[in-house]
Write a structure and sequence with these properties.
heterodimer, A: alpha/beta, Rossmann fold, six-stranded parallel beta sheet, 5 helices, B: Arc Repressor Mutant, subunit A, two-stranded antiparallel sheet, 9 helices, 66% helix, 3% strand, Sig_transdc_resp-reg_receiver (chain A), TCS_response_regulator (chain A), phosphoprotein (chain A), Response regulator (chain A), CheY-like_superfamily (chain A)
Chain lengths: 148, 187
């Protein structure tokens, strides 16, 4: 095994959603480290620090003040340093337009935020497990599309 | 102009290993499944040099016995999924335990413990990933892809694709095409 944990980052302006997210990961059997940011600007500032440790999976809320999830996504996809980060859109929106557009812009995963904590745990566990499969089996990340 | 290429990873890796071991003057014998037997003791500096060379090719020496066996399971399964030419007529569980000489129960528990997924899910993932690469890189129709991957019908392939990825093969194809278009416009 290359690493002993999966490094996960979330950018979300909703405090409750952030809380649920961190709590869900605490209850998973897969080892993870979770960092959170309250908006897109704070996230991008942290990612853009040279030599910073990059997340394995980045969860982006779409509607955030200052800088939206879509703006972050486009910025991240235009920087080659971030090419190995799997991007998960984590949104209350389930509009087909948002889903297809973010996939086309390079997102790997689209998650409609569930209202049930058990379902959230299952979804996050699936995401980390499948990402792990891509990582350890050398699968083609360009073909990594997952909608949950 | 665009061309598509297909790799034989096993041959690719053995060729590199042959060349590099010969270069270092190490006497060896290739066994199955990425096993190499050194026929005489190898001095530590040579072994270190060999590890360094492997590293540049993204090849890694596996130290842990459990990880080795899991890698063998994966290699066997991948071989089973991709070598669709000579159809394997037995169930994957029988095929695996025959080939690796352990009971399926033991192999399947070990596999889940190390990889966080089951053998069944691993096979499905591999087949779906193969289907994806055929969708994006060849002009094959879904019917032809289903046939090649030994699905009983297109519907079966589409259902498993949707269950695994959350999107339909057609949506997948459309998204990848749009991504390429977007990238071409940027370049």
């Amino acid at each position: 095994m290359q690493e002993d944990y999966t490094y996960v980052v979330l950018a979300d302006d909703d405090e409750d959603d952030r809380l649920f997210f961190v709590e869900a990961f605490e209850e998973l059997k897969i080892q993870t480290r979770v960092d959170i940011y309250k908006d897109g600007v704070a996230l991008m500032d942290a990612l853009n620090v040279p030599d910073s440790v990059l997340p394995n999976i980045l969860f982006l809320d779409l509607n955030m003040p200052k800088k939206s999830g879509l703006e972050c996504l486009i910025e991240i996809k235009s920087n080659n340093r971030f090419k190995d980060i799997a991007i998960a859109i984590y949104s209350t929106s389930a509009s087909e337009e948002d889903i297809e557009n973010t996939f086309v812009q390079g997102a790997n995963i689209y998650i409609k935020k569930p209202s049930d904590f058990k379902i959230l745990k299952k979804i996050l566990s699936d995401v980390v497990t499948i990402n792990w499969q891509y990582h350890t089996n050398g699968l083609d990340k360009d073909n990594f599309l997952l909608r949950l | 102009m665009k061309i598509f290429i297909k790799f034989d990873f096993t041959q690719f890796c053995s060729t590199i290993l042959d060349e590099k071991l010969d270069e270092l003057n190490i006497k060896y014998r290739m066994l199955n499944f990425g096993e190499i037997e050194f026929l005489e003791p190898v001095p530590p500096d040579k072994l270190k040099a060999f590890d360094a060379i492997l590293d540049t090719y993204g090849i890694e020496k596996i130290e842990n016995q459990k990880v080795i066996l899991v890698q063998k399971i994966k290699d066997t399964l991948i071989d089973m999924v991709f070598n669709t030419n000579d159809a394997i007529n037995v169930k994957s569980s029988v095929y695996l335990s025959d080939k690796l000489g352990h009971s399926y129960g033991y192999l399947s528990n070990l596999f889940s413990e190390v990889t966080y997924t089951s053998i069944e899910n691993f096979i499905i993932l591999q087949r779906i990933e193969y289907a994806k690469s055929l969708i994006t890189n060849t002009g094959l129709s879904l019917t032809e892809i289903a046939f090649r991957l030994q699905y009983s019908s297109v519907a079966h392939l589409s259902t498993q694709f949707k269950n695994t990825t959350g999107i339909t093969p057609t949506a997948f194809q459309r998204i990848i095409a749009k991504r390429r278009e977007l990238k071409n416009n940027k370049d």
